């Protein structure tokens, strides 16, 4: 009861002092967490929860090596990047060493949003050096003898993407501008349909890119940048078809656009078989943006680009971010890179990820009616829940029930993603172990078993129930069973 009072008090203050659109996980019964270690977080009563969705605490919550590097630096000196400091150049060198040529120039920011915002500024600066796109035939006739106006710079993104919360990044994020409170697609943004490998839709990247380019050119504009993740997270943990990005990049570059890989979620060894997820697609981006995992919880992010683009951006205006590359950031970033290497966490992501996929495939075989698809690479995994295998209709209500069950009965924290919130997302710290994988999939199994024992009427009601109805059905069911 004391804990309930404490929770109520925090909730009360939260409602008074924090914005109402700041979301809370498990809103009906939020967790009051006080400590983290490795892949677990602990609530105020000391209960351990398995954290299966955290790509910030990448090498484990409160990793002692990272904590010590940051706190020692904070206790010594933490100031901006305008002084000579070994840490910043050493971190930039270490990061560049993970990248293919010609990606060797690093800009540090504080958040992934800022990194993408900056990538857009660099791409727009580079576009200033390009000739305007060829006008359509009738426009060319009309313009004959007149000097063409410089083309407006546009951008292309993949549907359902999220690239950040600044004004510019909201415009780059269909996940936001198409959703509640969003203003719809800005005219300068062109959206490639999200490839849906499971349902066999929109798989041709080249065709999608050509359509976006044609749309921009019809308006006399040029696409200056194409932004995408290399595994689509908000899109529903979608693995791109082989050759997809290569085809998009080819079209975009033919048109003069810069290709940006947003590795904010999937970088730093998470995908196991590669350090960066763009490597899975065998492409070399022009700009790679990174964030969340690089600081293991310390706010730092940035981008890596080529000397050519850095020179185009260097137009006389200084680039400066007070905390971007401040002394503590590289100290932290170097410790994270050391831990990934020394604890062989990329190989761990590959090994434990493969084990998760095996366990999840067995689960799918036993529940093939509702587990529509299991997909992933390393520890970036999605489990798509459907109403039935034949129609492949997304089942967000059931996905929600599964998440609630796992939290309530097994203290396993999962989340859902995708255009319909019907994909259970799994992206734990990459120190996740085989034992953790077994605990997680065991929880999913009992959740699914409890669903299969529901009455046909409850099953039907669940298929398109709202959140509250799901909870009512689940509560009635747990009383019955
Ligand atoms: N890009 C992607 C793919 C992200 O997932 C996020 C954050 N969820 C961002 C960019 C923005 O990062 P931040 O919240 O650090 O600004």
From TrEMBL:
<dbReference type="GO" id="GO:0008483">
    <property type="term" value="F:transaminase activity"/>
</dbReference>
<comment type="similarity">
    <text>Belongs to the class-III pyridoxal-phosphate-dependent aminotransferase family.</text>
</comment>
<keyword id="KW-0663">Pyridoxal phosphate</keyword>
<dbReference type="InterPro" id="IPR049704">
    <property type="entry name" value="Aminotrans_3_PPA_site"/>
</dbReference>
<dbReference type="Pfam" id="PF00202">
    <property type="entry name" value="Aminotran_3"/>
</dbReference>
<dbReference type="GO" id="GO:0005739">
    <property type="term" value="C:mitochondrion"/>
</dbReference>
<dbReference type="InterPro" id="IPR005814">
    <property type="entry name" value="Aminotrans_3"/>
</dbReference>
<dbReference type="GO" id="GO:0030170">
    <property type="term" value="F:pyridoxal phosphate binding"/>
</dbReference>
<dbReference type="InterPro" id="IPR015424">
    <property type="entry name" value="PyrdxlP-dep_Trfase"/>
</dbReference>
<protein>
    <submittedName>
        <fullName>Uncharacterized protein</fullName>
    </submittedName>
</protein>
<dbReference type="InterPro" id="IPR015421">
    <property type="entry name" value="PyrdxlP-dep_Trfase_major"/>
</dbReference>
<dbReference type="InterPro" id="IPR015422">
    <property type="entry name" value="PyrdxlP-dep_Trfase_small"/>
</dbReference>
């Amino acid at each position: 009861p004391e804990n309930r009072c404490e929770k109520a008090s925090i909730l009360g203050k939260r409602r008074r002092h924090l914005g109402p659109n700041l979301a809370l996980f498990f809103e009906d019964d939020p967790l009051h967490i006080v400590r983290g270690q490795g892949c677990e977080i602990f609530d105020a009563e000391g209960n351990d929860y398995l954290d299966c969705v955290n790509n910030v605490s990448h090498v484990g919550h409160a990793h002692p090596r990272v904590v010590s590097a940051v706190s020692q630096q904070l206790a010594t000196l933490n100031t901006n990047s305008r002084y000579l400091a070994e840490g910043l150049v050493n971190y930039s060198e270490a990061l560049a060493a993970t990248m293919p040529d010609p990606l060797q120039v690093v800009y540090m920011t504080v958040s992934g949003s800022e990194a993408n915002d900056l990538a857009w500024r660099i791409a727009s600066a580079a576009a200033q050096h390009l000739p305007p796109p060829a006008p359509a035939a009738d426009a060319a006739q009309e313009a004959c003898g007149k000097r063409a106006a410089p083309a407006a710079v546009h951008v292309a993104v993949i549907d359902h993407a999220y690239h950040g919360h600044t004004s510019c990044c909201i415009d780059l994020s269909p996940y936001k501008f198409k959703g509640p409170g969003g203003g719809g697609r800005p005219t300068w943004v062109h959206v490639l349909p999200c490839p849906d490998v499971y349902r066999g839709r929109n798989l041709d990247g080249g065709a999608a890119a050509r359509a976006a380019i044609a749309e921009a050119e019809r308006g006399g504009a040029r696409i200056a940048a194409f932004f995408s993740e290399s595994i689509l997270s908000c899109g529903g943990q979608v693995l791109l078809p082989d050759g997809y990005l290569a085809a998009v990049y080819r079209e975009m570059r033919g048109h003069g656009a810069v290709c940006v890989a947003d590795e904010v979620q999937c970088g730093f060894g998470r995908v196991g078989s590669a350090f960066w997820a763009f490597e899975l697609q065998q492409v070399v981006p022009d700009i790679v943006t990174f964030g969340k995992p690089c600081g293991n919880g310390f706010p730092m992010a940035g981008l890596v680009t080529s000397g050519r683009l850095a020179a185009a951006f260097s137009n006389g205006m200084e680039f400066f971010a007070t905390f971007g590359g401040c002394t503590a950031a590289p100290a932290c970033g170097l410790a994270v890179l050391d831990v990934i290497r020394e604890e062989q966490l990329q190989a761990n992501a590959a090994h434990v990820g493969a084990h998760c996929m095996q366990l999840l495939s067995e689960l799918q075989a036993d529940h093939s009616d509702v587990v529509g698809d299991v997909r992933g690479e390393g520890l970036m995994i999605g489990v798509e829940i459907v109403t039935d295998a034949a129609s492949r209709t997304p089942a967000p209500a059931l996905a929600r029930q599964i998440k609630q069950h796992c939290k309530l009965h097994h203290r396993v924290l999962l989340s859902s993603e995708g255009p319909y919130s019907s994909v259970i997302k799994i992206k734990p710290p990459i120190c996740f172990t085989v034992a953790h994988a077994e605990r997680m999939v065991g929880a999913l199994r009992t959740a699914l078993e409890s669903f299969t024992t529901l009455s046909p009427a409850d099953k039907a009601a669940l298929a398109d129930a709202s959140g509250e109805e799901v909870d009512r059905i689940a509560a009635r069911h747990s009383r019955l069973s």
